[in-house]
Write a structure and sequence with these properties.
Blueprint (H helix, E strand, L loop, with lengths): L2 H9 L6 H13 L4 H14 L3 H12 L15 E5 L7 H10 L5 E4 L10 H5 L11 H11 L1 E4 L7 H12 L6 H15 L3 E8 L8 H17 L3 E8 L7 E2 L1 H12 L5 H17 L6 H13 L2 H12 L4 H5 L9 E6 L4 E6 L1 H13 L13 E4 L6 E2 L4 E7 L2 H11 L3 E4 L9 E5 L1
Parallel strand pairs: 1-4, 2-3, 4-5
Antiparallel strand pairs: 5-13, 6-9, 7-11, 8-10, 8-12, 9-11
């Protein structure tokens, strides 16, 4: 086979067979096909798409490019959640210990930030000592002992996806349904979970900003999961404005700790508990999602979730004293506020703008090899629907580089809309596809 001819075939709208897709993946892993050729292939897929058979084949080949973890030695239901990515989306850090505290095993392989959206691994690594790399034996042992484990892809788990994932982030090919589907599921199927809950974001802060595309992705994720014999539910959630009040790696960990300790962050709490409820429902721990949501909240209220979170951090080598010292606020060196120029109501906080601002501050990547810093980020003092007075701080920005504050504020200049009248309305849980 010829690499250029396969790329050309997809570029021209042709359908690739399994052997052709396998040729590209095997060659890329072997080093005989280059980054720039795979970048061209990714762009061809971005513009031309893939049908169901191609997407299934791509997922299967990525999955079988490495090991598939066998969790049969663990006696209990294994259920995981995956978000398609958003701004301020930090539910995995709460969900994993929350559902584990209720007797469900949560094997979670997470990713890093993509484009303007944050990554779970980057957040976890803002905890000093937290180790996201484990071999298969350590992964299974930790899952058995704690009930949940949160790691990154190893070189042996869906290695093709790991390499594709890094390229997509820096070649503007993140928002492609077949590429997103195959990327998510190759990891999730490799980790050994039996049931999957997908949080599919809709709105400007999502990787797929078009609502119809997001719905299509949700359907694709559920359909392909079931073809691999997994239970699956997709929850469509709003991502027009950032989720919660804190954006950035440590800032988001901090907000999760606050929530686990009893602080009411209404939108974050609602999305988190609906997802937890869906996980408990698929695991047989609740009769339906609504009952699961109630059970999930009780685990927060009685302290079980925070206790399990500390246990998980300890098992990963993380510094629990740093966690317990969360109220001694840890902040980047420089800060600056976005000040309201008028009195009125906040009717828009464009999540994409906030995501791009957080990347500029140092909380995300512009290039695949960029360092992501733990402390830069944004704290929202106001949310959509809030009243604001002239001269009040709408949000505060933090960075280790004072110059970056100016550029980040530029992204926010048109991201916040304040009107004389309250016009904002939002449906946080848009739909559930079961």
């Amino acid at each position: 086979m010829n690499t250029v001819e396969i790329i050309k075939k997809k570029r021209n709208g042709g359908k690739l067979n399994k052997d052709e897709i396998n040729f590209l993946i095997a060659g890329y892993l072997a080093g005989t096909i280059t980054d720039y050729q795979i970048s061209s292939f990714l762009m061809a897929v971005y513009f031309r798409g893939m049908d169901d058979e191609e997407t299934l084949n791509l997922t299967d080949l990525m999955l079988h490019s490495g090991d598939i973890i066998d969790l049969k030695s663990i006696n209990g239901v294994k259920t995981d959640k995956h978000s398609t990515g958003g701004v301020g989306d930090k539910t995995s850090l709460i969900l994993a210990p929350q559902v584990a505290s209720l007797g469900v095993f949560v094997p979670m392989i997470s990713g890093r930030g993509l484009g303007h959206t944050g990554g779970t691994l980057d957040k976890l690594e803002s905890i000093p000592g937290f180790r996201i790399n484990m071999n298969e034996d350590e992964y299974i042992s930790t899952l058995k002992k704690v009930g949940c484990v949160m790691i990154g892809q190893t070189d042996r788990l869906a290695p093709a996806d790991k390499k594709f994932y890094a390229l997509r982030d820096v070649t503007a090919t993140v928002d492609s349904i077949p590429l997103i589907t195959s990327s998510i599921l190759s990891k999730k199927l490799a980790e050994g979970a039996e049931a999957l809950v997908f949080d599919v974001k809709i709105g400007s802060g999502a990787n797929l900003q078009d609502e119809n595309q997001s719905v299509e992705l949700a359907k694709k994720l559920v359909t392909v999961s079931r073809k691999f014999g997994k239970k699956a539910i997709a929850v469509l959630t709003d991502m027009k404005e950032p989720l919660g009040c804190k954006i950035g790696n440590w800032l988001e960990v901090e907000e999760c700790i606050e929530l686990m300790k009893g602080k009411k962050v209404n939108d974050l709490l609602k999305v988190n508990n609906v997802l937890a409820g869906a996980m408990l429902y698929l695991s047989g721990k609740a009769k339906n999602i609504d009952e699961g949501e109630i059970i999930a909240q009780q685990a927060i209220d009685d302290g079980s979730v925070y206790g399990k979170f500390l246990e998980m951090v300890r098992a990963h080598g993380g510094d629990t004293e740093y966690i317990q010292d969360y109220s001694n606020l840890k902040r980047a060196k420089f800060s600056r506020s976005l000040i309201s120029g008028k009195t009125g109501f906040v009717n828009e906080m464009d999540a994409f703008g906030f995501g791009m601002a957080s990347v500029e501050l140092g909380a995300g990547r512009k290039k695949a090899d960029d360092d992501v810093l733990p402390l830069p980020g944004i704290i929202l003092n106001k949310k959509c629907g809030d009243e604001v007075k002239r001269g009040e701080s709408v949000c505060e920005l933090f960075s280790e580089d004072e110059e970056k504050l100016k550029y980040a504020l530029g992204y926010l200049s048109n991201a916040v809309r304040i009107d004389d009248e309250l016009k904002f309305s939002k449906k946080l849980i848009i739909d559930i596809l079961d």
